[in-house]
Amino acid sequence: MGNVTLEHVTKRYADVTAVDDMNLDIADGEFVTLVGPSGCGKSTTLETMAGLTIPSEGTITIAGEDVTTRPPKDRDIAMVFQNIALFPHMDVHDNMSFGLRLRDFPGEEIDRRVERAAEILQIEDLVDRMPDELSGGQRQRVAIGRAIVREPAVFLMDEPLANLDAKLRVHMRTELQRLHKELDTTIIYVTHDQAEAMTMSDRIAVMNEGHLQQIAPPLVCYDQPANLFVAGFIGSPSMNFVEGRVESGEIATPGFDIAFDPGQVPELVAGDDVTVGVRPEDVYPAENAGELANPTRPIRARTDVLEPMGDQIFVYLVLRGEDASDAEAATTEAASARGADELLMSVEPDSDLAGDEDIEVVLDRRKIHVFDTETGDAVCHDILRSEAMGGEPAGPAGGS
Amino acid sequence: MASQTVEEGESDDGPIAQRAQEAIRNPGDAYQFLFYVVTAFFLVTTLFPFYWLLVLALTPGDRMTDIGLLPNGFNPASFVEMFQRLPFHVYMFNSIVIALTTTVIVLLVASFAGYAFGRLQFRGKTALLLVLLAISYFPPAAFIIPLFQFFTGNVEILTLPAVGTIESPNWFNTPGAMVTPFSALFLPLSIFILTTFYSQIPDGLEDAARVEGATRIGALFRVIIPLSAPGVATAGVLTFIGVYNEFFISFLMTDGQAQNWAPIVWGVVNYQGQYQAFYNLMAAASIVGVLPVVILVVMAQERIVSGLTAGALKE
Question: What does each C-alpha distance from A28 to A4, A25, A200, A264 come to in angstroms?
Fold first, then answer.
């Protein structure tokens, strides 16, 4: 009953298009997160579902009914706002029962529902307080309580945790997941924080500049990003990108080459400009390469800055280019494409790496993502296909 | 006052010069002193007329000449006599009804207008606000004659061939003749006050109310207006006092009889007969007439202060 469908939803303002041809199909009981940088249209999308904004084009269906132009009150939705938006002139009980009172529910029913919601959210002691007597976390619970007493078909949450401090945010994250399990209602959640998106959602809808980039379960977005934007947005620290060109049997970049078997990966066509993406955790120092089934050839690099995080160390590497045989890489092109000669690597905290040290690193070839440089779309996510697991295909890699 | 003026002239090391030196060292003290001086000045200028009314009211009617700072005698009976001679309570009732009706109309209309001006974006908003401002500056004297003509049924609004002539209503001696122009006159001020207040209510609260099931108007009355209580109270009190104190239209639109909705102005003026003027009764009536406004301001002040603290707790 709580399924939500957006078809070709577009919202144009005088000078900008906030949402462009958005198509979403959200199943009943699903927890879907809209994520993207600020200004990407995710909040506008949520507002069109809430009815606070009427889309310029397209239709919105909630629970099987076309609600595109209906006012918010007739949509069977509840919403939790970023600024919490408790009514300052009402106590907690009145805040939570506001919607029920507007709908003329009988008094006992209101009290019963408020009590139950307060119990779920562990705010039974607070029902007589005014909002200004509550802490940030308590206010957010009340706001969520106000949403759940109505027992709507769909919960819309617009960055509900953004105004909380970091510790409380992590705590509320798990509470929300628990709540979702308990209520089993559709939740559509907007955030710019990819950690929230990754941890809570059944599916993530990544948006940028008004366009839906990818909608998929969190790990699919992480492991098989649909394009450069998703690859760069999901994951922290973000993926390394190196521009290069497909040649016969290898992808040549200014800093290194990656061999592949053209027979296994027909998507890679020689002469194409591609961007190679590799996550920091898939870069290894060459001495650890033994653990890796399918490493690339060692890549010469110099460590620059080390960021010890406690559980891991982020190492910024400056590529030194391949040996003289790969002449074009060394100077001109590398210098012109600033950033293309840098890699971020994450290593175990017990590593004895130091700054300004010449080392060699390898990449996990199973975790290399290739994108079309021009369109940004993913070309392939694994330049070894499963049947090629046996080892590195014949080619230049053997030389290292 | 003294220390400030003298300190420039005196240069000896007398006591005054010492005080001046002290004031220079502690300018805060001097400011404090000046504050008391200015406050005292305002209190005297505003309160003395009331004191003078009291002096007049307490002076017996046959000793109304050569009155000094103290009343010539003590005759509190004039506060009773004023009610015996004229039904002054009816005049007061008329005034309060007219002022309250106007206040309700003004607050209602100004709330909708303030909502539109303060919270919605639409073309021509600034131009409309400017027109409103311009209208509020029209001098009442410029339109009392046409208004009188209009409300005495002497204006033909339009002539329809089938129906005949539609004339303006004859509302002379009814509250409508006063409430209608008062509402129009006091609307701009209230609209400006409420526009400011309503525009400061966070959008999120209105959105929340609408998502919870309120219409836009429902959100206005359940959330925006309660949260703007200080603004609404201010607009309401200003309108009430303005109407209660109004002279021109109040004087013009009735024949001065209490049963014909004549307001306080007429009540006070009617103590002046053809051969005799009861100045002591006029003064007593004026004092009694002021009481509702005093009570209102005292009450509203509390409301405004409590409203302000409630407003401070918003996000």
Answer: 8, 10, 16, 40
